Amino acid sequence: MAFLKLMVFSAVAIILASSKKGDKKGGLRSLTALVEQQTKKISDITREINELKARKNDVMVVSGEEDLREERCAKVCAGTSVRGATNWVDTSSNGIYTEVDISKCGFVTIPTVTSSLEGTKSHWKTTGSSEIYRATTSTFKMYLFAPDGRGGVANEKGWNVEWIAVGYIC
């Protein structure tokens, strides 16, 4: 609506400027060109909106802990906690955990999260990499039994969380 008001205001300004100079035909030509230009922009925007509405989402959630929503709202989002720079926290003599930020996904419901542990050394000795704790729309935690990864050693060994989340964004 603001866009149309701006277009009308511009047209009136051109007409007034032209009529003061006595060049009514020039003002009309300018106004016509402006209207054609704005009409093309509106047409392009309308076409883009219709293409987005018609786009079929290839993601489908068939079951979940919450009520299912429209398919167009389903999203797959994936990421990593960053190799060598994950915030691993010691929890016990054999345990560590990290909280993974998934807020950029834009979920409005708690997604289904699948995770694994990547690394360059000794991560095969751990357990717990696929167990998700305290998932929310923006974070989840992973606790590991990892006697070889405490005290910052997990980052030295390149341990990081690889994850995929499926949920709804609307």
Low-confidence blocks of residues: none
Number of strands: 7
Number of domains: 2
Stated plainly, the CATH topology of the largest domain is called: Immunoglobulin-like
Q: What share of the residues does DSSP label as strand, in percent?
A: 25-35%
Strand order of the largest sheet: 2-3-6-5
What's the gyration radius in Å?
Answer: 28 Å
Give the overall form.
elongated
Average per-residue pLDDT, rounded, comes to 82
Structural class: alpha+beta
- Portion in helices: 25-40%
The CATH architecture of the largest domain would be: Sandwich
CATH class wording of the largest domain:
Mainly Beta
Number of helices: 3
Straight-line distance between termini: 25 Å
Q: Spell the H/E element sequence.
A: HHEEEEEEHE
Key attributes of the depicted protein:
170 residues; alpha+beta; Immunoglobulin-like; four-stranded antiparallel β-sheet; three-stranded antiparallel β-sheet; 7 strands; elongated
Give your account of this protein's structure.
The protein is an alpha+beta fold. It has two domains: 53 residues; 98 residues, Immunoglobulin-like. A four-stranded antiparallel sheet has the order 2-3-6-5, with no helix packed on it. Strands 1-7-4 form a three-stranded antiparallel sheet, with no helix packed on it. A hairpin with a 5-residue loop joins strand 5 and strand 6. Helix 1 packs antiparallel against helix 2. The radius of gyration is 28 Å and the shape is elongated. The relative contact order is 0.17.
